[in-house]
Amino acid sequence: MSDLLIGSIGNRRAPSREALDKAHRLATTASVLLGVYLAALLGSVAWYALNPFYVGRTPDIVIGIAFVVAAIAFASWKVAAYRLVPDLSGAPADRTPGWAAGGYFVPVMNLWVPFQIMGEIRDSGDARALDSARLFEVGRRLPLGVWWAAWLSAGIVERIHGRIPEPAMPSTGYVVFSMLSVLLIVAMTVAAILVVRQQDEGQQEAAEVLARLEAEASPAAG
After folding, report:
1. Do the Cβ atoms of 135 and 126 come closer than 8 Å?
2. Which of 7, 23, 113, 128 has a Cα-to-Cα distance from 163 of 20 to 30 A?
């Protein structure tokens, strides 16, 4: 793989080991906590299916806590991974690291900024990015596309679902929107786990290649 990069590294360089390790730890934590959230969500669905007349809110509280914790871990990883982009890509990132987490909270911009930033992280982790066509391989782009499409779709469905009064007896429309919302959230969460693992692996691999090339080039530079 190093042959693909020799002579074409440009301004790329391996980030510090500390920064790489931090991003990797946060990626692992985010993946695990997203899995916990997914388990809590599916467990809640099963609970309500088995207990249709249950009126408590305990499952919802558990899901809410799991979501907040997972979201914080995901955002923390994203910020750490985005900090690696300038070194790995050899060019300044389009935005400051704070946007990696804050982009979700800015109206209108939250429709594309989080996806754009995630795309930068993905591309920076392509150890063979000299062949720009590889950036369009379906296997590399699909999880990210599914994650973002599911995220936007889930938001739309949740808004519509939230405007439907909860009936005393579940109506067809209410049940359909509830099931659709759950399916989209499940797809989003599974895709998010794949994205985190894929992008962390890509950045770690790219850093290893760059570090090796820097080591190979240092005697010649001396």
Report:
1. yes
2. 113
Hey, how many other C-beta atoms are within 10 angstroms of the C-beta on 182? Answer: 16
Q: Give the angle 182-36-78 at the CA atoms, nearest 5°.
A: 90
177-192 pLDDT, tens digit per residue, is 888 999 999 999 999 9
Give the separation between CA 198 and CA 193, rounded to whole angstroms: 8
Give the global pTM.
0.86
Contact assessment for residue 88 and residue 15, using Cβ atoms and an 8 Å cutoff: yes
CA 151 to each of CA 33, 71, 76, 189: distance values in angstroms, whole numbers, following the listed order: 18, 13, 18, 9
